[in-house]
Write a structure and sequence with these properties.
This protein is an all-alpha fold. About 80% of the residues lie in helices and about 0% in strands. InterPro entries: DnaJ_domain, J_dom_sf.
Amino acid sequence: MSDNLLSLAGWYILPNLVTGWVQSAFYAVWIRAGDPKPQPGSRAFVQHRRRINILVIVAYLLYTIYEADFQLRTAGNLYQDLGVGLDVNERGINSRFRRLTLLHHPDKVSPGSDRTTAESYYVHLKFCRDILIDPTKRFAYDRLGPDIFFWRPQPTSIPDFLTIGLRNLFFYYSGTAAVLTLLGFLGYIKQAAFWRFLALAALGVFEVHCLTNPTFPRLLMQMANPIFAIIPTHPQFLPWQLISLLRKLILTAFIAFSQIGPLITSPEAAAAAASNQNDEVSQQQLQRISALGQALENEANMLMGLEMTPFAGDEAAMREMRGRMKRFLVDNTVRSNVEVRNAMGEAIARRRQGVPHGAVGAR
């Protein structure tokens, strides 16, 4: 349970943190020096962050699955330690143990070798042999894993192992369901609540089936292990190893989907949020420009008033000043307007040539 809580904490801290680093590195590498970078809150920035976040979450999901598989392969199992297959019988176990005894018995180690290490290894091999040739303990180990070695008092029959195993399953799944419900209530996992609990219930039923089934489940023997066999040096998994991997897979997959879901299903919402933010920024800029224009207009009126102060009270002078300003504005407009200037040029050219007005258009 503590590993699951640590994994949950990592899921809600690392993806967002790594996304920020990757986006900064992406802009530093992809955008040339001197070119403008998308600003936080812009449409391009939001789209880039959404896509990078999806890739980071998927990569972290794959890494989590690989890490769980790697830990199981590194830890190994009693079958791997003896070097026998999962379907080995008692005769095959004893035969393999005799061959290993000839190689690793403490009395047969070469002089100068560490006898303590040899004794410890041989004791472990004998322990593996004793567990696997005992039908009750082998049944319990295949389905419940090495935890059975630490149960006190030590069970002696299959019903005892099943009772403790089912009790532990109840505590695990009820605790996991409570944690997922709490996270959903707090708003951390909002997507696919029904499917999340359905998958958890299906895994619980499958685990009970593996625990109570007298033989290996068909799913393990005919589907999972043949797939693992494709990977070079990948060992076959026992039911308890497969269950451990499925637990990790389902938990992390639903956390990943709960984070990817809003990013995939509502890109328009993210774009709309960025657009609204841009509209707010544009509106603020327009307001600042309007305020600046009003201030310039007030300043121009004040300067105009100062310039007209000497003519205050003289109506004739004011009329003459207005007339001159009107002519100046008209002349300035004529000089600056290309079409008016061209029309005046054509009219002057016709006068000089003696062409009647409108003759050019008639032709």
